[in-house]
Structures are given as structure tokens and as C-alpha cells.
Amino acid sequence: MNKIYDYAVVGAGLSGLTLSYHLADQAPSDADIALLDMRADYQMDRIWCYWDVLSHPFLETVQHTWHSWRVRHKGQEVTQTSEQYPYHYIPADRFYDTAFKKISAHGGFELHLGQGVDALEPEGDRINIKVGDRMLSARQVYDGRLIGSDLSRWRCLLQHYGGQIVETNRTVFDPDTITLMDFDIPQTNGIAFVYVLPFSRQRALIEPTIFSYRPLNMDHYRSIIKSYLHERYHVTKYTVEFEEKGIIPMRPQAPPAQAAERIRPIGTQAGMVKGSTGYGFLSIQKSTPLLVQQALASHQSRRRVPRSNFSIWLDTVFLRYIEQHPGHAPEIFFNLFDRVKPDALVRFLSDVARPADYSAVIRAMPKWPFLKAAAGLKRRLVQKKREAAAAIPGG
Ligand SMILES: Cc1cc2nc3c(=O)[nH]c(=O)nc-3n(C[C@H](O)[C@H](O)[C@H](O)COP(=O)(O)OP(=O)(O)OC[C@H]3O[C@@H](n4cnc5c(N)ncnc54)[C@H](O)[C@@H]3O)c2cc1C
Description:
globular, alpha/beta, seven-stranded mixed beta sheet, FAD/NAD(P)-binding domain, 9 helices, 3 domains, 17 strands, Alpha-Beta Plaits, 29% strand, binds flavin-adenine dinucleotide
């Protein structure tokens, strides 16, 4: 008879590896765990940044830290500084190394890398996992596959970006302050800004980011980087050491996944990436220990996103407003950084806001337009509820 794994983690990206790390730490040594991913190569393919508002086991992988960040809009600049919550940078290769080291130390993991999972099929008390012409089975599956090309499923505004780590021939960057958003670039393909992470006076990640419905190809981002280096820093000569490209759906929550009781979506699929900011690293770190506790207690609870309903609601109103008024987005972001104290804003952006933080953020937003967007959202929800009730016989 074929082996039945206790757990299978499908998709060994950020969420799958974080989950596997915690399983390796806490699961009994005789637990059988399968870890599957379509890729076999784990190199430096992206970077993760986040504000240090909570601890997690990957702190040793942090390679750079800043305490100050600026936002630019219409020639104005606001700089915020926080001693309490530094901004951390983790290169993906360091994260992968740490995760795989922990996983291999457990002894119960079997890695199935280099071949995509085609289907997850429930059968009795197990899930069959179809991988090419092989079939594996597990009692519990965590599905962290993020199918980049399937973005049509999300039907929403996208945050898309392409960045390069460049080395310039002159000292031009301010290594103490990151540029979170520089809106002073042509707003041609959507709401556009440049993100700059300065690692030294000559080395930085330059990343044009755009909110629109259609992603661009890498050449577009490369040409924005070239113009930006020229316009902002008068640099024409530079070498490129690394490139990354990303597309993040700007939705407060993932669309409901077609999952069975024993298949639990994780990561982006489970709504862990905040729609309005595109940040997901920390919420994945925050939610995973609970998921592992539940897994080890064989406790199947309802799927929950580790974000408060109020935070999701605020994200929804915000996203609805900027979809309707894209031209206002730069000013709204600028005002947030200008009017809300840094620590409160960081807690809000990192989904650990206190009531006073929410009220500071709401005070910094334009009142009437937001109330209108909120009222429109409420009308739509009520309408949807009525339609759902009408569809149920006797409802
Ligand atoms: C370039 C980039 C930069 C980002 N930067 C930040 C940041 O600075 N800070 C932040 O907080 N968030 C950031 N994010 C957002 C978020 O944190 C990341 O997208 C994060 O990697 C999401 O984790 P995940 O597990 O959902 O997806 P991923 O990490 O993308 O993992 C998905 C995995 O599924 C695998 N897979 C897909 N299909 C199959 C299949 N059929 N079979 C088997 N395996 C499959 C993939 O190979 C991949 O390993 C960034 C996102 C991107 C794309």
C-alpha cells in the first residue's frame, strides 16, 4: 500500500517554507511530511522587506536595516523616523537556506521538487496529490501554490513592479533613508511611484511600482529605472546585479479557493498579502504558528485570515476609493506619511494597529469621498446578501 503522509505542503515558497519550518520545529520526529514545489532551484529571486513589529524565526536572515523612510509628491518630501520599528531587508536566498536547513534536520520530510502539482483530489480521509504521472497521498494538505498567470481569477487592480539592484559609478544614494514612494515620475501607465532601497552610497534597489489592471514587461520597468537614475541622481553609468519582478492582486482578501476540508490554502491564496500595500511577509509569519498548532492538535478550524475585520474593511474602502479616483492616490499616501506619527502608521501598515492608530489614519484620509466609498460598499454588500437570500428556496 502507498505511503500516506501526515502532512503535505504544496508550494515551497514563503508561506510553504515558513509552515514547514514550524512543522520541522514542532512535529514529532516520526511524522511523515511531503514538501512539493514545481521548482528545484532556490536562488536569490526576490527580496522581502517589512517593519519589525513582531518577532519570527527568520530574524537571522535580515541583512540590512533602516530607521528612516521618505515619500515624495509634487516636489514635497516627508521623512519619517522610527527607533522602535526598523525596516528590515531579507534576501530570498538567505531565507531559503535557513528554512531548508531546519527542514532537513527534522528527518521526516521528503522533498519532491522540480515537478508541478497538477491536482489535489479528496478521497475518503485523504487527499490524493497528482504530480505528473505519480500520485502521493496525505491526510492534510496545505496549498501555497501561487499561480502567477492565473491573475484573471482575481479581477482587480494589480500592484506590479520590476526592480533592479544597481551599482552606480558615483556616490549618489543616501544610505540612511529609504524612499518608500516617489510619485514624482510620469504617471503614464497607472498610479506610479519608485521605491529605492539604498544599501550604500553606490548600491541600491530601484523599483518602479504601478497600480493598474495590466502588468508591464520587464523592459518597461528597466526604462523607467534608467530615466529615474538620470533625472533624480544624474547617473547614466551603472551595472545591474539583480532583477526582480512581481504582480500582487490589490484585493483585501483572496477569492474563495475551491478547497476541501483537508486542503487548507496558505499564503497569498489565503489572503495573507495586504491588498493596499502588497506586504505579506509579516502576516505569513504571524499566522503560521497558529496554523501549526492547529495541525498538530488535529484541529480543523474554519479558515481564518489573521487580520481584523476592521482592517480588511478599511482596506476595501481604500482600494475602492483609489480604483474610482486613481489620480488622488499619491496625495492620500503622502498625507498619511505627513500626518500620522511614524509608529502608529507602521502598526497600521503592518496590521497590528491599536484603536488610536486607526483613528489617526482615518483622520488623515479625505472624509467625504471615503464615506461615499464606504456607503457604496455597504449598499453592494446588502444587495449581495439580498440576492443570496433570494437564490435560496424559501430564503
Ligand atoms: C518580487 C516580489 C517581491 C515581494 N516583496 C515583498 C516585500 O518586500 N515585503 C512583503 O511583505 N511582501 C512582499 N511580496 C509579497 C509576498 O510576501 C510574496 O509574494 C510572498 O512570496 C508570498 O508568499 P506565497 O507563499 O503566497 O507565494 P510564493 O512565495 O510565490 O510561493 C508560491 C510557490 O508555489 C510554487 N508553485 C506554483 N505553482 C505550483 C504547482 N503547480 N505545483 C507546485 N508548486 C507550485 C512556486 O514555485 C512557489 O515556490 C513580494 C512579492 C513578490 C512577487
